[in-house]
Design goal:
This protein is mainly α and 219 residues long. The protein contains 8 helices and 6 strands. It folds into 2 domains: 83 residues, Winged helix-like DNA-binding domain superfamily/Winged helix DNA-binding domain (Arc Repressor Mutant, subunit A, Orthogonal Bundle); 87 residues, no CATH class. The radius of gyration is 21 Å and the shape is globular.
Length: 219
């Protein structure tokens, strides 16, 4: 009998394949719901980002940076959304070069289509134990940091690189870190990946904090 050789993919490859499947599902869900109305995934991302901003507006350059796309790509997506009356562009009264994109009432309603996928992913995450959830969050922090170092993610307002973050400042294994902004201890489950109060630490300090965070065992 001839034995069939089983090819084994490297473990990192299988991890990436799994993450890709999740990413594809999250990207295709708004497309499936909005496809009939002609609003594609990148357009939905712009609408979603604007919904999260103060006064539901942002500069074109900020949108491009947040979505990790080139400025011409962001401008083209915004132009298409403006034609659909989902956003409107305004030039600054003081600087004609500055263009701000504002979400319209129609755009706000169209952007609501994506509100279901975070709940769907959250429900799936809740199937994990608390320990598994904390471990997953710690892993995501490391992955995002690595991608940011490679230049694949331009914006990552995570606790670890914030000027207020002090890694392993406490002996408490459950809450070893400290946030100087709120003056409170932090455990891994409370670390943020996108904090609105984030202030980037100087690069040298951020590197030291990162090394201290990863070298010691996290809770």
């Amino acid at each position: 009998m001839q034995l069939i050789k089983v090819e084994r993919d490297p473990l990192p490859g299988r991890v990436v394949a799994g993450l890709s499947k999740i990413g594809l599902a999250m990207k295709s869900r708004p497309w499936r719901r909005q496809g009939r109305q002609g609003v594609g995934p990148l357009q939905v991302q712009v609408l979603t980002f604007l919904r999260s901003q103060p006064n539901r507006c942002a500069m074109v350059s900020v949108i491009a940076r947040e979505l990790s796309v080139k400025l011409p790509t962001a401008s083209e997506v915004i132009r298409t959304l403006e034609e659909k009356k989902l956003v409107r562009r305004r030039r600054s009264d003081t600087d004609n070069r500055v263009v701000t994109v504002h979400l319209t009432a129609k755009g706000l309603k169209a952007g609501e289509v994506v509100t279901g996928w975070p709940e769907a992913l959250s429900a799936a995450t809740e199937q994990l134990s608390n320990q598994e959830q904390a471990a997953l969050l710690s892993i995501l922090i490391k992955l995002i940091h690595s991608l940011q170092v490679q230049g694949e993610i331009s914006v990552a307002r995570m606790c670890v690189s914030c000027q207020y973050f002090r890694p392993h400042a406490h002996a408490n294994a459950a809450q070893p870190h400290h946030c100087q902004l709120v003056d409170a201890p932090l455990g891994v489950p409370t670390l943020r990946l996108d904090c609105p109060e984030y202030v980037a630490a100087p690069s040298a300090e951020a590197q030291v904090a990162w090394e201290k965070f990863t070298q010691a065992k996290t809770a």
